[in-house]
Structure formats: C-alpha cells, structure tokens
Amino acid sequence: xxxxxxxxxxxxxxxxxxxxxxxxxxxxxxxxxxxxxxxxxxxxxxxxxxxxxxxxxxxxxxxxxxxxxxxxxxxxxxxxxxxxxxxxxxxxxxxxxxxxxxxxxxxxxxxxxxxxxxxxxxxxxxxxxxxxxxxxxxxxxxxxxxxxxxxxxxxxxxxxxxxxxxxxxxxxxxxxxxxxxxxxxxxxxxxxxxxxxxxxxxxxxxxxxxxxxxxxxxxxxxxxxxxxxxxxxxxxxxxxxxxxxxxxxxxxxxxxxxxxxxxxxxxxxxxxxxxxxxxxxxxxxxxxxxxxxxxxxxxxx
Length: 301
Fold this sequence. Notes:
By secondary structure, the protein is an alpha/beta fold. The chain is 21% helix and 29% strand. The protein contains seven helices and 20 strands. The chain has helices at residues 33-43, 57-63, 80-87, 110-120, 172-175, 186-195, 216-228; strands spanning 2-6, 27-28, 31-32, 49-53, 70-74, 97-101, 105-106, 124-129, 137-139, 145-147, 160-170, 200-204, 210-211, 245-246, 252-253, 258-265, 270-271, 276-282, 287-288, 293-299. Strands 1, 4, 5, 6, 8, 9, 10, 11 and 12 form a nine-stranded mixed sheet that branches.
C-alpha cells in the first residue's frame, strides 16, 4: 500500500505563525510534524508516500529533498482534499491508499486500520472517535457511515455521531470519480458515494491520543502534554523523564532567565537576560529580548 499526507492547507487559524511556516512544518519539540508523520508511516511499512503542498510549498519541498521515495505534489492553486487526492491518482496502483492529514499528532495504529479496511471490504474506511468538540459523522449500529453533517443522528435506532480523525483508507477507484483540476472536498465525494450505494465504513479508535494542532491553544496543549507526561511521546523525540524544559542544550540562555511550568526552546534560540518564559514554545533562531515576559505563547519570529 501507498500513503498520502495532506499538507496543502492554509492554516488560517494559526496566523500569524503560518506566515513563517506551513502548518505541517510546525515544530513539535523541535522536530517538524511532517517529518514525524513520515517516520510513523515508514515504521508501519509505507515506503512510498505522496505529500501535496500549496501554501509555502517550497519549504515543504526543501524539507523532504533527497528522499526519493517521497513525491511532493505541488499545487499552484489549492485543490482541496478531494482535488488534491484526485491529482495524486496517477501515483497509486489498485491497492487501497492510506490518507493522513498533515496537522495531526496521534497514537493510532496505521497497520490495524489498514487490516480492518481489507477485512471490511468497503470502498472507504474512515477512522472515527468520540470527540465531542468535533462529532458530526453519523454511523449506524454496524458502524456504517450514513452521513457527514450530524443532522440525521438518531433518526434511526442505534445511530450516533462521532468525529473524523483525518485518517482514512480509500480504494483508488473512488478517487477516479472526482473531477480533475478543480477544488473539491473529499467529504463531498464520500457523500456522493453514499447516495450511489457505495460503502463507507467506520473504524472506531479508542484508547489513543489525538490532536489536530488546529489552533494556537491546541499546539501549546500538545507541548504541555508532551512535557508533563500526559501525552505519548514518539521515540525520536526522546524526552527524559520529568523533563519540562526542552531545548536547553541547543539554545543560548542568558543569566537570570526564569522558566516556569514548561517551555520548549528552538535550536539557536537566544533568550535575553532577565526574561521570563512560561508555557511557551520558541522556534528556531528566534531572539527573545532581555526582560521580556512571555506566557502561553508561540514565539515564531
């Protein structure tokens, strides 16, 4: 099987920081999230990966340069989740494709999801979970998806709504039904598939961690969890037990700097004398002025 990472979004909820980097390249404990996602796919056995890119796409292209098994699909005009997948169709064979949003950090097992899809024999499998903030996908008692707006939930016995994690497995024949070269949503494609009696199955994820890093609060919350031990840490991030302040070995920290609760400092970040940082992520190379007091913030420039 092949995999695709959707990384072309504009990240408007994370402005002004997405003027500096596209959201998939936001650092998580000083490692780009996109690289962490690629590593997890490789560990699950996906050697060939397509990554689509639009906003600040040259940064994504440079960050993946030299990896011959990754195809960066550049999109001059943003094509959306449906149009981006349709454009990538020529890179796939007849096997199902695992698709992952480029802005999620999670502990869901890709291998288990793909095994489930093959056994279910569905056209599409969406990984869902119960996440009240985002619940809008309607499923029946057999975990068949019946709608995506949440409007019909409860109209039939046993129906309920769940949230889409941004992880799905798609048979390529479904993508061939999407009009080429136009902006479209993959969810609209799935709604059409349901109207035409296609099968969209739900894989229910439980006992896992997940966040979509969609807002500054989500991004900071992920770092808080990683540095306080409430979020599972990927092996390559290698945080020592009870380590609440990351990056001290490669940042330049002046005298009398106060670090409170948890802090992540980027490579070659420079923290001026007498500054106070609390629940804050400072990106690579950023200078924090002497005496600055920064709390609950992303310092990206």
